[in-house]
Each structure stands twice: as structure tokens, then as C-alpha cells.
Amino acid sequence: MADEDNKRKKKRKSGKKKSSSRRSNTEEENAGLVMTGEAEYAPDDGGAVVVVDQEPFNGEDMSPAPVPEPEAMTADVGGGDEEGQQNGFTEDGLAVAMAVDAGEEDDYVYAAIEYDPDAKPPLHRNRRFRVYTCLAIVLVAAAVAVTVIYVTKGAKGVDEQFTDINVATLPTFEPTPSPLTNREQSGIIEQIEAGVLQRGAVFANMTVDDPRKMALEWILHYDQMQLNSDDVNLYQRYVLALLAFSLDSLAWYYCGNHRMVNANETVDFVQEDCDVLASTGVLESHKVWLSSADECEWYGAKCSSTDGVLRGLELMGNDLIGELPPEISQLRFLQYIAFNGNCLYGNIPPEMGTMPNLLSLELQGNGLSGAIPEELNNADKLQLLNGAMQYQYPYQCAASDGRIVNTIFAKGNPENGYNWGLMGSTLGDNVNKWKSMKGLHLFDNSITGTISPSVGDLKYLVFLRVHNNAIQGLIPNEIVKLNKLREVYLFQNGVFGDFPPDIGLMEDLEDLRVHENEMWGFLPDTFWKLTKMKKLWLQDTLECEQDEADEWKCMRSRDKGFQGSISPEVGNMKKLSQLLLNNNPLTGTLPAELGNCKELSRLHIHQTFIEGVVPTEICLLRDEELFDHTGQIGVFYADCRPNNKTEDPYISCDCCSDCCDHTHGVCVADD
Known about the structure:
Helix content is 13%, strand content 16%. By secondary structure, the chain is α/β, with parallel strands linked by helices.
């Protein structure tokens, strides 16, 4: 690129004197002249381009026309015979002296001009002058024609290739900027700056390796589509090109490498086609990013068939490397983004909250960090937000420059320390702005704060997975208003307290996991009315204390946690497949009604104070679902080993897969 700019610079300098009139004051008042049929675009100052016919130089002599010959003069010689002395000659051809009439002296007589042997002809009569003048005019006309052809071709989007010309120039005290090409003067730069660039950015302040500048250069000079400033897909194509340069498309697993490497050279932007192995096992043909094809044909770009507007981006597991540019927000009609399973790092751009049609944002399984921007709550059409698995998620990608990017580290670099994932009080009071939200997946991050009562306004919420974070506080009572909620994953946080008493109103609840928190209290009576419940994980309640260094230390305890007994109404949960209650101070006996749960496949009641004998109805389940189908050991745990090695076991069980010592917590397979 630098060589090409230098070539253009030298070329323009060599023609500066010949073309300077195109930038004179005359140009500001009148349109520039171009060859007939070549005019196409109006200059920025608003002047109209005038198309004229130029007459070729004819090469004729430009000297004045010759003076006509004088009329024949007659005179009488000595009053003699007119017949013998006509025209001043005798019959014998002898000259005769003639008298001159004084009254005719003022007449111009061509033949009477006196000859001067030292005199030179007038300049316009000089043959050499005429020849040189003709040659000069021809050269000027040729120079004008070349200049006009260059300008008109540039206006059509054709970049000329120049040859180096050595031009002697006067020394300057500061670098001379590269001359602008006609593509750069066509309004494309201004359009993109005004309609796409964010945070007050302008191209003039960018370095050549800035992805935004690289995308512009591609649009102007390398994209074979050669869009104009008024093309409807200019913004769309530019933003996709920006994503390619920002996310290191040369390192992508599929359809990002546009280069062709030969023995002697590497050529960019020439690869067109790529094949992708679909989930069905069939190879599918796609177009490479930054190819000459329509951007809707690029791999992973999903456009509506009627208007060619980009609606979705699917680049899952494709080794995308880098930071999301804020300009992605200018894909105004984009409805879903699926960039999960890559090596993205940095922050989520707050500008994404301005995307008016965004329905689904999937970024899970990357190395993103920083607070989830509050502006994202303004995306009120958002139905799915998945930013999970940013913290302690190890995944490596190989960049095109040879770097190894590992998502477990901040920005993929071990020198930056470990990545803590996404942060912020995402479940705070503004959470109810996501009035269309159906799936909120933010687990395995560093989310803080409490669960606001505003969460009860998410009336369409179906999935709430926010486990393995640093969320504190109580489960608000307003959560019971979410009667469409099917999954609640709050485990491995700092949640404490008991369940809302009206939890039974959440009639669609199927999967509830709150283990490894500081929860306690009795299970509400309405709890057993959750007839669609399939998985209930209440195990491993923690007891936390603050040490001398003001750090919290937590450990599992069978003496702290949920209390009371298992109600016989548990039999209403006929779809229950997993019931994990271990490490809680539960008491009472196992109700025989649990045998109604024919799909039960995992039952953990060890490290509790449940006593008695396991009912036959439950043991019969071992012949149905409560059995080791997959080779895993430990589907039915109970404290059926001698307590403290010498005492009677807490519970008698003839069908347990594993028996545990209540005091020492040692479990041994007993199948």
C-alpha cells in the first residue's frame, strides 16, 4: 500500500503543472472539462460537470493570408503607339521607361517593395517557429487528454496503476500528504464516518494497522464490488469487513483465509470459495470473507432473501480472536449474533444496547471481561442473552501472527493474569428493561450484587442460569410471579435465606438448583406442589465465617441448611428424576410415596439426619430407573454404614448403591 501511495504521489507531482488549472479559481466558478461521454460524477463543491466536444488540432499555418497581386499597369511612352507599347514593353520585348503619376504614390504597390538582403522574415512567417508551435500544441492536447481520461476513470471507481517517475522537487520541512484518489473523494469516507464509526472516531486519526482503517482501505481499493457512497449495503459490507480485520479472519477455522500463497508471493483477497462440514456430515459450499461475492453469501452471514439485509451472524467455534468493535451496533437490522466458542476478549461494547432489532446474543465460551454494560438493558427486544463461561474457561486459538491466545487469561495473554470474566450487578433494578427476555445465561462469571425484586417483571423468562458467580442476598419473593420459569440455577453463589413461601405458584418449574449456598429454613408446604419438577438439587449447604483477615471461609456442613422432613406429597412430583438432599440437617424418614416417582434415577440423602428403613417402594425403583445404566457409581446414597465405625447406621437400606458413615462422611459402594 505504501509503495502504491508513493507511486501515486510521484505520478501526480509529475503532472502538477499540467493539471493545476483543474484546481484554479476557474474550477470553483465553472465545471471542469472532460472528454465527451466520460463525465459521471459531480465534484464535492456542487459544480456541475460540463461535457464538451474538443476539436482536434488541424496543423494549418496560422500566418496572415497573402496580399493579392496588383492589377496590370498601363502608360503611354512618349505618347507613342498604344499597340506597340502596351504594358511598358515594345513589340520586340524591350522595356520602355514609364512616367509615374504623382497622384498614385499613395497606392500600395506589391511589386515595388524594395528587397533587403539582410532583412529577416516576420516571426509568424518563420518555418521553424511554425513547426515548433505545432508540436507544442500537439503535446499540450495529448497531456490534456491523458489527464481527462485519468480523472474520469477515477470517478468511475477504477484505481490506476502507476510507474515510478523520478521527479526533482524542492525540499520541504514536513511530510507531504499522499494525494487523494477519486475513490477517496467520492463521499465514501464521509458516509462511513457519519453513519458507522463510533465514539467520535475519524479515519484521519487512525494508524494504518487500525482494523477500521484497514476495512476502509479494502472498501475503497481492494473490494471488487467497488461500492459507491449511496449504495444501500455500504454500511453492512463495511462492518462485516471490519469484523474480519478485528477478529483475525486469517486464523479462522472456516472461510476466513482470503490469501493465496505461492512460491514467490502472497496475494490477498483472491480466495473465493470454501467448504464446511455440516452437522449432517455433508460438505456445504460457502464464500470466503472479504471475497468479491455479495456479503450475504459469506460463511455465517444470514440475510433475508427479499432485500439482502443482514439478519444474523453465526460463527460459533470458528477461532475468532480479538475484541468486538463497537461499530457492530450499526448493523441495525441484525436479529441474532452467535459468536460462542471462540477466543473473544475485552469488553462487550455498550453500543450494542442501541441495536433496535437484536433478539439473541450468544457470546458464551470466550474470554470476555469487564462489567456487562448498563446500556445493554436498553435492548428491550432481547430474548436470549448468553454470556456464560468467561471465567476459568480454558480455550486456545492460534492467531495468524503466531500468537497463542488462551481465554483463561485476560485478553488471552498470560502476562495480564487470569481473566475474571464478566462483572457488574446485572440482576439489579434495571433488569426489568429486558421485558422480552426468555433466557438469561450468565453462569461462570464474576457477577455481583443482589437479585432485584424487578426480576419478577420478566414475565416471559423461562431460563435463569446465573450459577458460579458472586451474587449475594435473598431470593426475592417477586420471583414467584414468573410462572413460565422452568430452570433456576443459583448454585455456587452467596445466596442465603429460605425459599419464598409461595414458590408453589411457579407451576412450570422443572429444574431447581441452589446447592453450595448458605440457604436454610424449612421447605414450604407449597414446595411439593411443583408437579413438573424433574431435578431438585439442594445439597451441600455451606457455612461461612469471616476470618481475622476479613476473608470469608466456607465449608460444607450437615448441621446448617434446610430443615424439616420430606413431605409425603413428594409423590406428586411424578416426573422427578434427581433428588439431591445430602449435607443438610433434614430429619424424619423417607416417605413411601417417593416410590411414585418412577423416573427417579439419582437419590442422595447421605450426611443428613434421616433415619429408619428405606421403603420397599423405593427399592423397587432400582429395577426401573434408580439404577446404574451408564457405568457410573453412586446413584443411591444413604448413611447405611455403621456410624462412627461402631454404632448403628442412621438408616437401614437393602438397595443403596453406596453406604456412608454419617460421622466420618466416608462412602463405600455397596452394590
